[in-house]
C-alpha cells in the first residue's frame, strides 16, 4: 500500500533538491537535467512505497518485505495480468493442465533456467517450494518432480478456482538455500537468490539498489541494468522529485497530475482496481473489542457515510464506485448475484442509521450520540500518517458519522503501528485497502479476506499470505468459498458466490468506500516499454507484486 498524496501544492524544488541529496540518488538526471543527454546506462529510480529507514528484508513471506523481492527477484510460475481477463503468461512454467477432476495440476517448466547464483533451477526446487511450510495449504497432498522439468501437484479437492494463487503467487525458492532456513517468519534473506531479472546490489537506510541478473534466462533482459528503490516518508516529497525529474516510476495519488506531467517527461495512467474500505475488527469471539463488533453499528456506519463527498473531496473524483459484494464492476458483472448490490450507497442517510441503531437497542443521548446501557458508541479510526487522501477521508467519515449520532475519532499513526494493529487485530476501525483480484473473478478476495482459515485470534498475526484482518469467520461463507474452489462449473460458482455476497453485504466486516484511484507516473521520455492504455499488458504501479518484475523485463532506455 502506498503513502497517499498531500492535498497541498508544494512544488518547492529546493525541498526536492534537499531530499535528493539526503537519499543519495544515483545516476544522471535524465529528462530533468544533468550532463548526459542519453539514458543508456542510467539508473531507473523508483519509489514503491518504502519509508525510511529502509531495512534489508527480501523474505517473500515477511509482511515488511522490500518491494523488489516480489517479481524483480523472486518469481512465480506464471504471470496473471490483473487488468484483463487473459490467459496467464509463462514465466518459469511453460504450460500446465488439470486432470479430469481438478485435483492434480501437472506443470511443464522451462528448461535451462538458472538461479541468480548460477545453480540450475529444476522441478525439484518447485516441489520443495510447494512443500515448504507456508505454501503447503489448500489441501495439498503432495508436490513431486518426476523429472527436471515436470512438477506434479496433487490436492485433496479440485483446485480450479485456486489456480491464480497456486501458479501466480507462489514464489519459487531455491532448495539449496531455503532448506537451511530454520524459521521463515524471522529470516530477513538479505542476500536473496532468485530467478528474476535482478539481484541485490546495495542497501542503505535511504535506498536500495538492484542490478541485472547475469544468469537471467532471456538474453539481453533486463535492458535497464540498475534500479534504485528509494525511501520517501511523504507523498509530497515524491511529487517534488517527479516534478524535478529525479524520479522515474511510482504509483501514488496526486490530485493535480498535470503539475507533474506538463513538462513532457513524466506520463500518467490511472487504473482503478483495488477496494478502499474501513477494516473493522468485527469478531468478538476471536477477541475483537469495541462497538464495531456489533453488526448493527457497522450497518449504521455504512449508511451514514457520504461516499460521493469522500470521492470528490478526498480523492478529487479519481476513484470508482465500489460494490459491497466486492465484485469489480463492470469486469465481474457476471458474478454479481443481486443487482441491488452493484454499488454501495453514495449518499448518506442519517435517519436510516438511527433506525438501525434504535432497532438494536441503542438510544440517543442528550449530546446527540447513540449508546446502550449507559455506554456511548465511541469508535477509534486510524490511518497512516502521510496517506493524506486516506487521512482526509477518515476526517470526513468522522464528521458524517457524527451527523448520524455515531462518535468516530480519527487519528493518524506511523506505518509500523498500522501494520501491527491490523496484523494482530488490536484496533477498532482502520482506513485501508483490499488487494484486488488478478483475474476476472472475486474468488481470491472472498477466500483471503473473508474466510476463517485466513484469520487468527486477536493477538496473533493472520496466516502468511492471507489478509482477513477483520477476524471475520462465518460458516456459510467458509462453506461457499470451499464449494467455489472445488468446481469448474460456472453455475455452481455463481450459486456459491450468491451465498457469500448475501452474508458479507449484511455483516460488513469491511465497510466498502471506493475503488481506489491507482495512478502510475513513469518517465516516458527516457524509457520505453511501459504499460499504456493501448497496451495494458500489466498492472502498472511500481509496488505491484509480480507485475513490477514483469514490467522491468519490458523496459528499455531511449537511445
TrEMBL record:
GO biological process terms held by the UniProt record: peptide transport
InterPro entries: Peptide/Ni-bd (IPR030678), SBP_5 (IPR039424), SBP_5_CS (IPR023765), SBP_5_dom (IPR000914)
Xref: Pfam families: SBP_bac_5 (PF00496)
Superkingdom of the source species: Bacteria
Domain Solute-binding protein family: 88-453
Transmembrane intervals: none
GO cellular component, one term: ATP-binding cassette (ABC) transporter complex
tRNA-binding listed as a keyword: no
Membrane topology recorded in Swiss-Prot or TrEMBL: Lipid-anchor
Main location: membrane
GO molecular function: peptide transmembrane transporter activity
Signal peptide segment: 1-29
Keywords, comma-separated and alphabetical: Signal
Record's subcellular location: Cell membrane
Record family assignment: Belongs to the bacterial solute-binding protein 5 family.
Protein name according to UniProt: Peptide/nickel transport system substrate-binding protein
Native source organism of the sequence: Microbacterium kyungheense
Amino acid at each position: 500500500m502506498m503513502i497517499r498524496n498531500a492535498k497541498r501544492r508544494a512544488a518547492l524544488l529546493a525541498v526536492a533538491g534537499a531530499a535528493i541529496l539526503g537519499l543519495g540518488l544515483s545516476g544522471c538526471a535524465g529528462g530533468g537535467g544533468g550532463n548526459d543527454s542519453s539514458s543508456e546506462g542510467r539508473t531507473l529510480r523508483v519509489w514503491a512505497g518504502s519509508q525510511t529507514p529502509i531495512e534489508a528484508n527480501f523474505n517473500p513471506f515477511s509482511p515488511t518485505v522490500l518491494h523488489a523481492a516480489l517479481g524483480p527477484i523472486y518469481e512465480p510460475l506464471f504471470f496473471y495480468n490483473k487488468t484483463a481477463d487473459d490467459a496467464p503468461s509463462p514465466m518459469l512454467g511453460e504450460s500446465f493442465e488439470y486432470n479430469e477432476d481438478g485435483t492434480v495440476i501437472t506443470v511443464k517448466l522451462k528448461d535451462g533456467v538458472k538461479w541468480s547464483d548460477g545453480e540450475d533451477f529444476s522441478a525439484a526446487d518447485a516441489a520443495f517450494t510447494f512443500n515448504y511450510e507456508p505454501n503447503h495449504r489448500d489441501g495439498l497432498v503432495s508436490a513431486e518432480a518426476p523429472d527436471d522439468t515436470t512438477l506434479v501437484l496433487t490436492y485433496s479437492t479440485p483446485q480450479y478456482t485456486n489456480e491464480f494463487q497456486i501458479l501466480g503467487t507462489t514464489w519459487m525458492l531455491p532448495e539449496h538455500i531455503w532448506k537451511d532456513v530454520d524459521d521463515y517468519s524471522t529470516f530477513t534473506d538479505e542476500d536473496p537468490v532468485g530467478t528474476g531479472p535482478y539481484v541485490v546490489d546495495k542497501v542503505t537506510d535511504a535506498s536500495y539498489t538492484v542490478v541485472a541478473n547475469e544468469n537471467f534466462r532471456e538474453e539481453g533482459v533486463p535492458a535497464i541494468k540498475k534500479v534504485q528503490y528509494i525511501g520517501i516518508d511523504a507523498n509530497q516529497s515524491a511529487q517534488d522529485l517527479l516534478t524535478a525529474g529525479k524520479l522515474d516510476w511510482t504509483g501514488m495519488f496526486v490530485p493535480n497530475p498535470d503539475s507533474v506531467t506538463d513538462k513532457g517527461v513524466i506520463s500518467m495512467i490511472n487504473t482503478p482496481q483495488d477496494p478502499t474500505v474501513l477494516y473493522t475488527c468485527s469478531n468478538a469471539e476471536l477477541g475483537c473489542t469495541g462497538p464495531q463488533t456489533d453488526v448493527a453499528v457497522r450497518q449504521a456506519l455504512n449508511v451514514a457515510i457520504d461516499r460521493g463527498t469522500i470521492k470528490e473531496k478526498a480523492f478529487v473524483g479519481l476513484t470508482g464506485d465500489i460494490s459491497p459484494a466486492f465484485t469489480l464492476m463492470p469486469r465481474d458483472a457476471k458474478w454479481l448475484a443481486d443487482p441491488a448490490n452493484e454499488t454501495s450507497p453514495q449518499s448518506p442517510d442519517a435517519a436510516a442509521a438511527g433506525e438501525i441503531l434504535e432497532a438494536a437497542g441503542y438510544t440517543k443521548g442528550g449530546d446527540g450520540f447513540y449508546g446502550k446501557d449507559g455506554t456511548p458508541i465511541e469508535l477509534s479510526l486510524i490511518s497512516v500518517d502521510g496517506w493524506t487522501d486516506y487521512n482526509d477521508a477518515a476526517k470526513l467519515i468522522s464528521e458524517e458519522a457524527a451527523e448520524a449520532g455515531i462518535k468516530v475519532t480519527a487519528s493518524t499513526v506511523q506505518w509500523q503501528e498500522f501494520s501491527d494493529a491490523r496484523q494482530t487485530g488490536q484496533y477498532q476501525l482502520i482506513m485501508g485497502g483490499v488487494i484486488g483480484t488478478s483475474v476476472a473473478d472475486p474468488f481470491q478476495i472472498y477466500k483471503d479476506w473473508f474466510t476463517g482459515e485466513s484469520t487468527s485470534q486477536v493477538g496473533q498475526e493472520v496466516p502468511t499470505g492471507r489478509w482477513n484482518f477483520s477476524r471475520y469467520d462465518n460458516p456459510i461463507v467458509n462453506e461457499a468459498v470451499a464449494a467455489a474452489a472445488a468446481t469448474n462449473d460456472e453455475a455452481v460458482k455463481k450459486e456459491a458466490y450468491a451465498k457469500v455476497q448475501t452474508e458479507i453485504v449484511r455483516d460488513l466486516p469491511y465497510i466498502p468506500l471506493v475503488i481506489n484511484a491507482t495512478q502510475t507516473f513513469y518517465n516516458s521520455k527516457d524509457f520505453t516499454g511501459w504499460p499504456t492504455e493501448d497496451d495494458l499488458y500489466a498492472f502498472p504501479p511500481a509496488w505491484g507484486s509480480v507485475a513490477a518484475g514483469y514490467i522491468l523485463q519490458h523496459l528499455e532506455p531511449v537511445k
